[in-house]
């Protein structure tokens, strides 16, 4: 599938940037997820699309084992080196929409800042349900699109312009419907604005000055309502940062 080839190409090229990225390596959600999940030393965790391995690293200290997966082999190899001191993290190249694991195998499944790269989210959620043990927990953290069509179109166009492997940031309603359709109850959730430093964000996937300038102009030429919604911070037409919507949801596999 063309989209998954793009994902592998982009993440293979930028594997180190996702380890060091401030957006991925830090964030209150990493400590909050421990509080929400209440992991136990007997638990087995699956981290889907682990990227730089930040979720796997944080959970490894609390559970028996973490299986970190990614569709990009080079990304996974780089992350394994970064996390080599954590002896209870295991690695598997895997497609989020076709997981190579038996059913009802994990106490916890996580996926953070990755699902907007998945072309078939319904298959992804179905796979999550399949591999979760009865009453197992699923933690999803991802960028979401605003309900307003204008803002939805703007942010998805911007993301695609900066990263060809971006498929779509989906709306809260779309995600909630997928949870319901696949027997996952939402236990806790929160949405918030995530501030992105523009230069770091754009250079994580682009190194061509002309394309970077084009991405910046797209933001600068947007109307004031759009700039206000995405909290665009500029000075003399230099973009310092902007903010996008992010959703963090804790689901549980229904058994009734």
Question: What is the secondary structure topology, with strand pairs?
Answer:
Elements: H1 2-13, H2 15-20, H3 22-25, H4 28-37, E1 44-47, H5 54-60, E2 65-70, H6 73-82, E3 89-93, E4 106-112, H7 121-131, E5 132-144, H8 149-162, H9 172-181, E6 184-197, H10 198-203, H11 209-220, H12 224-229, E7 233-235, E8 238-253
Parallel strand pairs: 1-2, 1-4, 2-3, 4-5
Antiparallel strand pairs: 5-8, 6-8, 7-8
Low-confidence stretches: 10-15
* Percentage of residues in helical conformation: 40-55%
The CA-CA distance between the termini, in Å, is: 36 Å
Count of strand segments: 8
H/I helix tally: 12
**How big is the Rg?**
18 Å
Mean pLDDT metric: 91
Domain Methyltransferase type: 46-139
InterPro entries: Diverse_substrate_MTase (IPR051052), Methyltransf_11 (IPR013216), SAM-dependent_MTases_sf (IPR029063)
GO molecular function, one term: methyltransferase activity
Protein name: Methyltransferase domain-containing protein
Describe the structure.
The protein is of the alpha/beta class. The chain contains 12 helices and 8 strands. The chain has helices at residues 2-13, 15-20, 22-25, 28-37, 54-60, 73-82, 121-131, 149-162, 172-181, 198-203, 209-220, 224-229; strands at residues 44-47, 65-70, 89-93, 106-112, 132-144, 184-197, 233-235, 238-253. Strands 1, 2, 3, 4, 5, 6, 7 and 8 form an 8-stranded mixed β-sheet that branches. Strand 4 (106-112), helix 7 (121-131) and strand 5 form a beta-alpha-beta unit. The protein starts with a helix and ends with a strand. Mean pLDDT is 91; it is low at 10-15.
């Amino acid at each position: 599938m063309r989209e998954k080839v793009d994902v592998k190409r982009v993440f293979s090229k930028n594997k180190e940037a996702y380890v060091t990225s401030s957006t991925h390596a830090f964030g209150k959600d990493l400590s909050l997820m421990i509080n929400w999940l209440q992991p136990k030393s007997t638990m087995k965790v699956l981290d889907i699309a682990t990227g730089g391995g930040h979720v796997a690293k944080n959970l490894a200290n609390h559970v028996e084992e973490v299986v970190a997966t990614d569709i990009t082999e080079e990304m996974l190899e780089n992350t394994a080196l970064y996390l080599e001191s954590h002896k209870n993290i295991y690695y598997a190249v895997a497609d989020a929409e076709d997981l190579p694991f038996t059913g009802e195998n994990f106490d916890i499944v996580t996926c953070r800042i990755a699902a907007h790269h998945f072309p078939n989210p319904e298959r992804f959620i179905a796979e999550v349900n399949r591999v979760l043990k009865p009453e197992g927990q699923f933690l999803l953290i991802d960028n979401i699109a605003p309900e307003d069509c204008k803002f939805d179109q703007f942010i998805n166009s911007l993301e695609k312009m900066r990263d060809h492997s971006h498929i779509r940031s989906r709306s809260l309603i779309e995600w909630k419907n997928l949870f319901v359709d696949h027997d996952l109850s939402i236990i806790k959730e929160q949405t918030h604005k995530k501030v992105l430093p523009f230069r770091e964000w754009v250079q994580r996937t682009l190194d061509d000055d002309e394309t970077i300038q084009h991405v910046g102009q797209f933001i600068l030429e947007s109307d004031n309502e759009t700039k206000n919604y995405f909290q665009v911070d500029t000075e003399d037409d230099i973009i310092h940062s902007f903010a996008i919507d992010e959703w963090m949801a804790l689901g549980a596999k229904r058994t009734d």
